[in-house]
Amino acid sequence: MILLAATTQSCSSSKKNTKAIVAPAVVKTAPSSESIVIDIEEPRVAENNTAVAQSQTTAIPNTPFENIQPSISTPEREVAELHATGIQRNYDFAPTIHYDLRKPQFVMIHHTSQNSIAQTIRTFQLAHTQVSSHYVIGRDGQVVQMLNDYQRAWHAGAGKWGNITDMNSVSIGIELDNNGSEPFPDLQINALLILLNNLKSKYRIPQTNFIGHSDYAPGRKDDPSTYFPWETLAERGFGIWYNANYLAPPPPTFNSTDALRIIGYDTSNLRTAERSFKKKYIRTDVSSELTPYDIMVLYDLYRKFY
Ligand SMILES: [Zn+2]
């Protein structure tokens, strides 16, 4: 029996959620033959769903992954194992050639809290860190891609946005080289805008689905920092912003908690959600309660985008 680990990871923490997936059988690779031979001595489900004990040998065609060493556990290895053997150990597995990886539906923006793009690239390449992102953007505007957009990076970790609790599976992670207490240079933001434009048109990502790590994991993550120009992004169609010149009091029926929840915030801890909202949209006041002004901002966003 082989245990494969599927992990969900934070961008700056080594904590991980691990799900054990039980692979179906012992895999033996025949170096000079045309196929991988799998010996199965497990019960399998017959047509009438009755489990029957049966020993059989199944030949599965070569895959591009077959020469990967079994002792090395990497995401590529895990995909190769699943591709060759399937997940359901009780069912026959005959892989089809017709499939896609899943399209990204969100973009999540981070700052690295590090001092150089080289340091971040090294962090994402070290085995023990268990963190990664699809793109890293340097202070000078250099864009480095580290994963294909369809692959699942480990950048979001635990959190909730709307009903999504596994953001790694549906998002592209972009890390901006920034120590967390400095402005983001124009060169870097311009490079980000070009990248976001490509991603938005390529995957048809809605404007509201460009979010920050702090939106998804309020209280645990605060990136990107209050220096990040969300307003500039929103003007170009990435994320949302309000019109400070036309704020109006909401009607008495307006429920600010519902509005936060509709935007995406996890309101199970309302104070944490409100603080995260204020840190992004108000900035000068990051207390944990909405003022009448904050509620007008929230109402404006709600009215415009939801
Ligand atoms: Zn982050």
TrEMBL record:
GO terms for molecular function: N-acetylmuramoyl-L-alanine amidase activity. Its EC number is 3.5.1.28. The keyword Cell membrane does not apply. One of its GO terms (biological process) is cell wall organization. Keywords: Cell wall biogenesis/degradation, Hydrolase. Pfam families: Amidase_2. This is N-acetylmuramoyl-L-alanine amidase. The keyword Cytoplasm does not apply. Residues 94-225 form the N-acetylmuramoyl-L-alanine amidase domain. It catalyses: Hydrolyzes the link between N-acetylmuramoyl residues and L-amino acid residues in certain cell-wall glycopeptides. GO terms for cellular component: outer membrane.
